[in-house]
Amino acid sequence: MSKDIKVALVTGGNRGIGYELVKQLALKGFKVILASRDPEMGHEAAQKLKESNLDVSFLVMDVDNQESIRQAAITVNEQYERLDVLINNAGVYLDENEKLLTIEPSILEGTMTTNFFGAYHVIRSFIPIMEKHGYGRIINVSSEYGAIGEMSYQGVGAYKLSKLALNGLTQLLAAEINGDIKINAVCPGWVSTNMGGPSAPRTPKQAADSILWLATIGPEGHSGRFFRDGKQIPW
Ligand SMILES: NC(=O)c1ccc[n+]([C@@H]2O[C@H](COP(=O)([O-])OP(=O)(O)OC[C@H]3O[C@@H](n4cnc5c(N)ncnc54)[C@H](OP(=O)(O)O)[C@@H]3O)[C@@H](O)[C@H]2O)c1
């Protein structure tokens, strides 16, 4: 593989914002690994992009399953020997207006497992590949629902807590990571996907555009920040 070709991986790349991120990264010249927990959906999504001559390959990774993440990292290390961009996009939205005190605790646990622990374990497993080259750009797809001010309002508690924790993780890891490896969180806005629903005003393409500038920031770029539409927003 040419040394000049950068490799990017997107979790939950089979649909929604993740699929668009894969497509846009490939259009920018990245070799893109579309990670999906469902082999059939992942294969189909990657195949569709390959048919447009995009350099996309598919990898199974269930971010709820640490062994699946570990195996995926081994495969990327063996096959590509590098990882320049990692986008933690996979996410679930399992609660609406329920109260935290009365929802099934499994809803909170499941949401934390995917949205917070999923990203945490993926970063832990993949960062050694970035560290080999002293370079990496990690983007955590978060939400303004995870901002501290949102905790004053009832509702969507499981999802809000998961993104609050993801934002905290972004800051803590930025302080821990050495070398030219940047980690930032970004809110894509309200986007028309399975999660966002058909009334959402933004397209996945607009969301991807608002995220992808962080994939190519230079060594002077920010780390440990939270952005929306290129502007820093309060945690
Ligand atoms: N849409 C919005 O308005 C909005 C707003 C703010 C933030 N976000 C964030 O943006 C990200 C993408 O959301 P979206 O709107 O594109 O949602 P979506 O259409 O529901 O897609 C979610 C993706 O995450 C994957 N996923 C869920 N659990 C997974 C797991 N355990 N392992 C691997 N993949 C898993 C899904 O895979 P399956 O197909 O297998 O289920 C799917 O590919 C999420 O982190 C979300 O919180 C979205």
Automatic annotation (TrEMBL):
InterPro entries according to UniProt: CBR1-like, NAD(P)-bd_dom_sf, SDR_fam
Keywords: NADP, Oxidoreductase
Residues of the signal peptide: none
Entries under Gene3D superfamilies matching the protein: NAD(P)-binding Rossmann-like Domain
PANTHER family associated with the record: CARBONYL REDUCTASE 1-RELATED, CHAIN DEHYDROGENASE FAMILY PROTEIN, PUTATIVE (AFU_ORTHOLOGUE AFUA_3G15350)-RELATED
Family: Belongs to the short-chain dehydrogenases/reductases (SDR) family.
Name of the featured protein: SDR family oxidoreductase
Organism: Neobacillus pocheonensis
